[in-house]
Amino acid sequence: MQQETSRREKKKLQTKKTIAEIALKLFFSKGLNEITVAEIMEEADLGTGTFYNYFESKEAILKYCLVERIDSGNQTLEEIQTSPLNAPEKLSQMVQAVGKTYEENQSLISLYMKFYRNLDKLDRKAPHGVRFKEVLSSIIREGQEKNEFRRDIPPEIINEMFSEIHKSTMSSNLGLPFMDNINYKLSLLLEGVTTQKEGEA
User: Quick one: pLDDT band at residue 124, thresholds 50, 70, 90?
Assistant: First the structure.
């Protein structure tokens, strides 16, 4: 019985993912407002009413898809955090990993943020950012304890600086490739907070 329930749950999860990915492709090609629930479900070869067993609205699909991708990115953050790298290397890899997640999902994020800006203030909760800041704080503390990061700068300031890299890059009008933009900022910020070893100029 338990095995049957597990199989049924897996099938439901797969159906939800299928609906979401089909909807996303349609949103990108024609626009969210131009696509109806009926069109999504026709493409998925399912009844229109079935849609509401999985999503309360078309907009809910955006959040679901973004959370899916952020969850995958968070797994990478955990692996970086527990790796044997030193703190500056961990921080660098983490910023780059999150940057790649943003770069690969810019269309989804833009669509989500367009909807997000139209929400009532009480509902404006982006599904990303929290875990990134938590892991970042942990790495900064580790770096300061090991004298790899400057101790004269409050950890909250370092966290704020690195947390803003992705946001500033997403709104940048410089015309640079996304990851180049991030890496320039990352290099400058790391140079400012990393403890210089003896013999270094």
Answer: very low
Average pLDDT, the chain: 87
Helix ranges (DSSP H) in the chain: 2-30, 37-43, 58-81, 87-104, 106-117, 130-145, 155-170, 178-193
Which residues, in sequence order, are CB contacts of 112 under 8 Å at separation 6+?
A: 62, 63, 66, 126
- Is the C-alpha dihedral spanning 100, 131, 21, 6 positive or negative? positive
140, 171, 166: which is closest to 153 by C-alpha? 140
Task: Tell me how far CA of residue 195 lies from CA of 21, 62, 170, 191, in angstroms.
Answer: 46, 42, 29, 8
Q: Please list the residues that pair with 194 across neighbouring strands.
A: 149
Place of tokens 């210089």: 196
**Spatial distance between the Cα atoms of 24 and 7, rounded to a whole number of angstroms:** 26
Backbone angles phi, psi at 138, to 5 degrees: -60, -45
User: For residue 92, how many other CB atoms are within 10 A of its CB?
Assistant: 19
* pLDDT tens digits, 4-19: 668 888 899 999 999 9
